[in-house]
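Hypothesis: this fold can be encoded by more than one sequence.
Test: take the structure tokens below, design a sequence, compare later.
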């Protein structure tokens, strides 16, 4: 796609053919033995050792420190993972198939500074999940629940650590502390995927500067002795809530369809 470069983050070398087929730039994470056709997050200036906790943000850090300075002015730069991909708004017949992936640079993007994934409504958790994960979260968010507001805050409390999001918010700069707190208490949809597209190097630098500064402060509170998938990726989940808030507040953003499928499994199915 002319002037659109999308970096697709993967965990296995077997994804190379599928990633290249869709004209994505292959990115390998988790210090695995990727071939030299991949960009990896463990060279040059990097925080690759934090990948179990930071997820895709170890590559974001690598891109910020090592590649952003070489970005061409006219290029749109985007990020996605092997199972959360950018869709084609004009042909989104199936949100679980690579046939619905973005194929061309959309004309309407020229009126926006950034593109973020479209939101999905947070589902009301069933009683079984509440009893298993969220009894304390239920008590902390009781007033919000009475208003039928299944907020980002309640969802985070329930699955990723009761009160952790509130503690993290205290570490934000003053310009965002109050606004982000209001956002997570009142918003009941989530722009999932930690993915965005932009043409502006300045925006990329501003976002990464703030989010990494914040996450480094959070490390001093939460550390890395985190157990279980929903806790060990704490910093990924914090950033996932912060990204849409930040892009909506500080940029002219457009929400865009996301395709949820395993890019490699789809390729194998197409060959059958």
């Amino acid at each position: 796609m002319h002037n659109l470069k999308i970096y697709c983050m993967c965990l296995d070398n077997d994804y190379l053919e599928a990633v290249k087929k869709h004209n994505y730039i292959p990115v390998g994470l988790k210090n695995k033995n990727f071939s030299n056709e991949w960009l990896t997050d463990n060279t040059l200036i990097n925080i690759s050792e934090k990948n179990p906790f930071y997820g895709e943000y170890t590559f974001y850090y690598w891109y910020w420190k090592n590649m952003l300075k070489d970005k061409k002015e006219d290029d749109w730069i985007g990020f996605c993972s092997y199972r959360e991909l950018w869709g084609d708004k004009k042909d989104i017949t199936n949100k679980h198939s690579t046939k619905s992936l973005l194929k061309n640079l959309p004309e309407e993007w020229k009126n926006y500074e950034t593109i973020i994934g479209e939101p999905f409504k947070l589902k009301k958790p069933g009683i079984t999940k509440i009893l298993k994960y969220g009894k304390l979260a239920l008590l902390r968010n009781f007033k919000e629940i009475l208003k039928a507001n299944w907020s980002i805050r309640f969802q985070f409390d329930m699955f990723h650590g009761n009160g952790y999001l509130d503690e993290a918010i205290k570490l934000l700069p003053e310009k965002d502390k109050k606004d982000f707190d209001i956002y997570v208490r009142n918003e009941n949809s989530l722009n999932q995927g930690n993915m965005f597209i932009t043409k502006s190097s300045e925006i990329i630098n501003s976002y990464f500067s703030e989010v990494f500064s914040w996450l480094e402060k959070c490390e001093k509170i939460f550390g890395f002795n985190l157990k279980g998938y929903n806790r060990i990726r704490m910093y990924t989940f914090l950033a996932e809530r912060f990204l849409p808030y930040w892009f909506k507040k500080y940029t002219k953003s457009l929400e865009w369809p996301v395709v949820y499928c395993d890019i490699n499994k789809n390729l194998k199915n197409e060959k059958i």
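Residues 4-119+191-271 form a domain with the Spore Coat Polysaccharide Biosynthesis Protein SpsA; Chain A fold (CATH 3.90.550). The CA atoms of residues 198 and 204 lie 8 Å apart.
Hypothesis status: open.
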